[in-house]
Amino acid sequence: MSTLKESFKTMIPDVLMLLVSIVGSLLLLVFSPLLHLMNAFRNKSFPTPKVIVITGVTCGIGRSLALKYADNGVVLALIGRSMDKLNELKADCQRKAPNCQVTLAQIDVSHRDKLKKFLSEFDAQHSVDLVIANAGISDATLSKEMSYEEKAYEIINTNVNGAMNTLLPLLPSFRKRRHGQIVLIGSLSPFLSMMYPTYSASKAAVNSYALTLRHELKPYGIGVTMVAPGFVFTHMTDVLGATKLPMAVSSEYAAQTIHDGVSQNRAFIGFSTGTMLTTWFASIIPPDFRDSIYPIMMRLVDTPSDSIVYTNEKEQLKNSTDKDRQLKLFSSSQATVEQVTNSKKIQ
Ligand SMILES: NC(=O)c1ccc[n+]([C@@H]2O[C@H](COP(=O)([O-])OP(=O)(O)OC[C@H]3O[C@@H](n4cnc5c(N)ncnc54)[C@H](OP(=O)(O)O)[C@@H]3O)[C@@H](O)[C@H]2O)c1
């Protein structure tokens, strides 16, 4: 009886959080026309960008963005790791717009010095209007041979440090010119915080950095936009091996939506609408309640149950004789009841 009473006591903060969400949302709803009007007067609008830098253009959203922005009179700096794919993209951009000037740079975004040198020289020559930090990786796009630990550092290095390596070298001249737009491709996944902890944390950092940087740089006349995609059909989602990707959109749709939002200097661009609303709702679920709700939500996203993250460990597991480790491994992943039972049978 006393345990039940204790358990109800722990519910109080969760219930309070929900009440604050309701009251806060109602207040914001009432004032939303006024807030919108204030934004319309106060937010800077930027002319159509003519000099644009995009990272991670060799496939997916980055490639579609490059093609979207390719236009006559535009100067593009396209950054990627595969020279063959970069050359292919350059040809496609110039097929679309013969007078589009394209500079290619074969650089890994985690190589800070190399990227800084390229960006500084390119900016000195052309004066960048818009930079899009798009390059990103997830657990699933990395080699299965890598350990969980190696993957974690690689993801942070590319997604977080890579984004900073892309925009920081341009900041001094953006500030001096009191002009420039920065776009950071984050994700809706941290709103859920449901799977792929390192990826989710890396994107939470990017999301938060973008939103905060926007306020820091506003007085300098610089625009910052946070882009939070839900599922987009690209290599990144192909490798998940999922049969269901709820409310996924094409990379062309993603590029068009980003292009439109950036031209309005939006603070936040989230898509698809359905995913944005679902994840927004998930973000207000008190963390303790997620324990009961998330197993139901997981069924909507049909990724292999013990999560790609653990593929390498699964291989090691086959050869392992350490039964405790096997159990721990399964129960700490998104393991199904059946898998845990099977691993128990090994004992
Ligand atoms: N697809 C989705 O559902 C989704 C959802 C939310 C957010 N996002 C974000 O959207 C962005 C684009 O992803 P995507 O879906 O288009 O994935 P993608 O098809 O896998 O493309 C990722 C791009 O980033 C490049 N890249 C990765 N690591 C790099 C590095 N160290 N240096 C330079 N380039 C690098 C890749 O180049 P290589 O070909 O050389 O690997 C590729 O061109 C990422 O930041 C991702 O996190 C995607």
UniProtKB/TrEMBL annotation:
Key word Coiled coil present: no
Alphabetized UniProt keyword annotations: Membrane, Oxidoreductase, Transmembrane, Transmembrane helix
Signal peptide positions on this chain: none
GO CC terms: membrane
Protein origin, superkingdom: Eukaryota
Residue spans crossing the bilayer: 15-35
Single GO MF annotation: oxidoreductase activity
Similarity comment: family membership: Belongs to the short-chain dehydrogenases/reductases (SDR) family.
Protein name listed in UniProt: Short-chain dehydrogenase/reductase (SDR) family protein
Organism, as annotated: Tieghemostelium lacteum (Slime mold)
